[in-house]
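User: My instructor asked us to take a sequence, write out its structure as tokens, and then describe one feature of it. I'm not sure where to start. Here is the sequence I was given:
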Amino acid sequence: MDTAARAEAIIDLAAIRSNVAALRKRAGNAEVMAVVKADGYGHGLVPSAAAAVAGGATWIGVANVEEAVALRSAGLTGPRILSWLAAPGERWADALAAGVDVAAYSPWQLGEIAEAAASRGTAARVHLKVDTGLSRGGAHLRDWPALVDVALSAQADGTVTVVGVWSHLACADEPGHPSVPRQIEAFGEALAFADRVGLKPEVRHLANSAGTLAVPESHFDLVRTGIAAFGLCPVQGLSDAAAGLVPAMTLRARLALVKRVPAGEGVSYGHRYVTSRETTLGLVPLGYADGVPRAASNVGPVWVADRRRRIAGTVCMDQFVIDLGDDPSAEGDEVVLFGPGTSGEPTAHDWAAATGTISYEIVTRIGSRVPRRHVGKEAG
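Assistant: Let's start with the prediction itself. The structure tokens for your sequence are:
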């Protein structure tokens, strides 16, 4: 660890490449879209996308136009990029100028997209989304014919080319959940209707990371892999290693202060931890402003001096405390919050279990004050 760093997140780009390569094998004949929204799930937008492409991803997925444009501006010209979340008045022209595919959930979105395309004298590449049971984005099945009709009209006008039809699974991370086959069936119905009226998309995509790993019948032409590309398996009962994945992020810090205190000392705000005997306390310079959940108070696992410990007391904005007992400790000693788990250190899954959330949130919430150090660039 850099001796000048209080804390850092190490991002293993070789792991991302390896994960995407493993997901390509899982996907069979389908292409792989690596989803790098939210700054690459906290791993870094541009480096993560480049590593995913090196691993075999032919598509990149992002939530919004700004993320897509940032990737193009950084020189990522090879893969197709799909941006899928928009509000009225979206910057469609910026997306089209950058050669980005966009998603449409409703006629008003198609209208705005077509208008932006007409002003540029080009046709927008559009993926129509149907809601097959997540009840989030996308046209409800009863509204699907109307959306397809508007798309066909825009396509006839030369302002839109429908290149994709897609949806999203709600419960693919729960093996055997009855909603999964129902959604696949509903997606098939939407595709059949589109085909009957003459809509011929290049790609049909439904599978997320969990679908890619556990529901092969959901693969169609393209799978969208988000958290799995970063080495964290979302499928219940399936470990990262069993899925062929390696977690790419390690979050670590150095002890900023070490001190002996007597028994009965209250620790941190609210004295939610009280020392049971004379002990050594260590101060870790990371807090909830850096993405360490305040819910980790008294339960967050850490790795210090080759053993696991828990946070002692309340997580503060910039720091937390650990009880080191009588083990030899000094300022500058390394504290690992989470990593791949191969050396005994906690994983993002462990943190999620301790704080009542999911591994996605653990890695994505690591804040900008924590520098990212990307390694593994030399690995092919």
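For the description part of your assignment, you could build on this observation: The mean pLDDT is 96. Try explaining in your own words what that tells you about the chain.
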